[in-house]
Structures are given as C-alpha cells and as structure tokens.
Known about the structure:
Elements: H1 9-21, E1 25-31, H2 35-41, H3 46-51, E2 71-75, H4 80-89, E3 94-100, H5 103-106, E4 109-112, H6 119-122, H7 130-136, H8 151-154, E5 168-171, E6 180-185, H9 188-201, E7 207-209
Parallel strand pairs: 6-7
Antiparallel strand pairs: 1-2, 1-3, 2-5, 3-6, 4-5
Helix pairs in contact: 1-7, 2-9
Amino acid sequence: MSGPPPRDRNGFKIWQEARRRGISKLYHFTPAGNVRSILLYGLHSRQTLLAHDVDFYVTDPHRFDERLDGVSLSVHSINEAMFEAKNRDYRGQLVVLELDASLLWTHSCRFCWTNAAAKEIRDHRGHLGGPWAFSRMFEDRPVSLLDTRPARSAFQRPDCQPTDSQAEVQVLDPVSPDAIIDITAGSRMVKDELEAVMAEIGVERPVVLYEELFRLGL
Length: 218
C-alpha cells in the first residue's frame, strides 16, 4: 500500500484495518475500448461521463443498484460470478485493472458488504461509508438460514477478501490514472493492442496475459 497513513480519523481507521488484513489491491473490469481514456484521464462514474457527453463502452446499459455516481471495485479478487456473466455476454473484449488499495482511505467510498443491487444494500438507510461499513465487509455470518456454518471458514475466505464474494466498493471521487498498477488481458491480440495504445499516448503500465481467467463462463 503506497503513501503514509492518512491524518483524518476515519481514513486512519480504514488504513489500519486494511493494513492488518494485508489488503494491497483492488480490481475493476471494463471494456478494452475504455483503456485509452482511463490511462489519460482516470476512472470516473457513469454519472460524470454522461454529464460531460463522454463516449464510453459499457458491458450492461442497466445499473440495477440505481447508483451511477460511483466506480465499482472489488477487494483483492474479482467478483468471479459477475465477471463470468459479463465476459460471456459482452460482445467485445474485457480487461481487468489492478488498482492501489489506498483508494479505500484517500477517496470517498461506499462500502457494500454484498452486491450493491441487493435489497439489503438498496434499502439501507444509514451511511455506507467510513470504518464501520468497511469492517462490515469482513464480518462473519452464517452461510444461509439453513446452513449455520460461519461463512468465512466454510468458503475459506482469506483475511484480505470480504466475506461475500459479491461485495463491492463504490468509489465516489475521480480515480487518477496513477492508481492503476497493471492491466490484465485475455489474449495476445488485446495485450498487443493495449501496448500499442500506451506507446501512442506515452503512458506505460504492465500488461499481464492471463488467458485462463477470460475462459471463465465460456
């Protein structure tokens, strides 16, 4: 995790918990066609992009959480179920961005301990930011009403990953390109295209080829 601990109280508590759990990375997947803009201008919410008439590619025109003001990230692993569905249904090429975990305490975030479109999150009346909501992402709970086993041990969740694999962080502030650590591509062709874009715009990031990941759900 880069940078010194934050000075504000809430940021420090989130930093402290993330450090204790060994959280160092966040993930965001997006159509490959968005990478040029992201490397130049960073990640912005769909609300911001629409307000400024910015052209961008989406994997799904609908946001069932009805919140267009945040960029959705996952903590220390991708949401495999969602990635499988998007990778199967989207006609273009997806890539996965790895981002620095410092966004958790340097940016305004909404911490969702399950999928943001779930009724539990959509109907929640309290604040979804701050140390309390962040810690709740890692709280243990029964697998289900019928299966009372602790979910973290039942699903062998490491300390750095939320209890629910559908959990997500919605970053409400713009994300600088500097937060991008690397990019994962699913084919040699996409990797070569990304590296060509980087050479053209003068921005470099490592591009990892991981074909097996992109075969999920196919």
